[in-house]
Design goal:
Number of strands: 0
Strand content: under 5%
Low-confidence stretches: none
Number of helices: 4
Shape: elongated
Order of helices and strands: HHHH
Mean pLDDT: 81
Helix content: 40-55%
Radius of gyration: 17 Å
Largest sheet: none
Distance between the termini: 43 Å
Length: about 100
């Protein structure tokens, strides 16, 4: 992956990586991609437009709430572990 001067991948490489891992459906990963694209566009945007887009992205991120509660393994380490509190796994014997 190509990286910017601060070590983060560019948006195209990040999108490709997330797609390969099947993580484009995760809202926190989409927010990461959104912020990466916004960061890349910063120099070509009007400062006010950039600030508004950044505030909108922040508001959307905050609406996710504490999405990670009970999903710490998946969110922070990339290892999926279904929650014991959630309904039976689709396709399991307990699933209707």
């Amino acid at each position: 992956m190509a990286a910017s001067s601060d070590g983060t991948p560019n948006a195209a490489d990040l999108a490709r990586y997330l797609e390969q891992r099947g993580e484009l459906s995760k809202p926190w990963m989409l927010q990461l991609l959104r912020l990466t694209k916004l960061k890349e566009s910063r120099d070509s945007m009007d400062p006010q437009e950039y600030m508004e887009a950044l505030q909108e992205a922040h508001a959307d991120l905050m609406r996710l709430g504490e999405f990670w509660k009970g999903r710490e393994q998946e969110v922070f380490s990339g290892r999926y572990a279904p929650s014991a509190v959630v309904e039976p796994l689709p396709g399991s014997a307990e699933d209707r």
